[in-house]
Specification:
The chain is α/β, with parallel strands linked by helices. It has 4 helices and 7 strands. Strand 6 and strand 7 form a beta hairpin.
């Protein structure tokens, strides 16, 4: 597992029974930290500039640009709060190195079973949608596909229901994602 970020190394132990704010890999922690810093600086500056420009257009009651900028500001501030909450006291995790079944932190390769010429697809099975792995799409453990993959082994056929219908896959490989 990667080294813990410096700001998390010397923190006080979590009181008994208190859950972490999130389970994140070191990579996800660093990426989220950079994203929230970007949003709090340049993101807020861009929104402020949009609001100022929209105000100069006149009447705020019928100003679509102002309404859109205010809406974007609210969405951005909500995202900042969500990320800050995750970064407050996270548990830094890594995928189990000698796993015998699919679990969080794994790269899982599956083959669609309902296609004439199927191509294997690789997913990162993660606890949070903010996790990323190069060359793989992220699927959370609570999503329909992620739930179906949990506990699977190579050769397992998984079926899940999504808004587009039922989908079947065969697990062809899995490995820990080490970043």
């Amino acid at each position: 597992m990667s080294e813990h970020p410096e700001e998390l190394r010397d923190r006080e132990p979590r009181p008994a029974g208190q859950k972490p704010s999130a389970n994140l890999t070191v990579d996800a922690y660093q990426r989220l930290k950079a994203e929230v810093e970007e949003l709090e600086t340049n993101g807020r500056q861009r929104v402020a500039e949009r609001l100022l420009a929209a105000r100069e257009l006149g009447d705020l009651k019928e100003n679509g640009e102002y309404d859109a900028a205010k809406n974007d500001q609210g969405l951005m501030e909500s995202k900042i709060r969500k990320i800050r909450a995750m970064l407050r006291d996270p548990e830094i995790v890594g995928a189990p190195i000698h796993a015998t079944e699919v679990g969080p932190g794994m790269l899982v390769t599956v083959r669609p079973l309902d296609e004439d010429d199927p191509e294997d697809e690789t997913y990162l099975l993660a606890e949070h949608a903010e996790e990323r792995a190069k060359g793989a799409r992220t699927v959370t453990t609570t999503s329909p596909l992620g739930s179906a993959l949990m506990g699977a082994v190579v050769g397992t056929e998984v079926l899940y229901e999504a808004p587009g219908g039922n989908f079947r896959y065969r697990v062809v490989a899995f490995e820990p994602y080490t970043g």
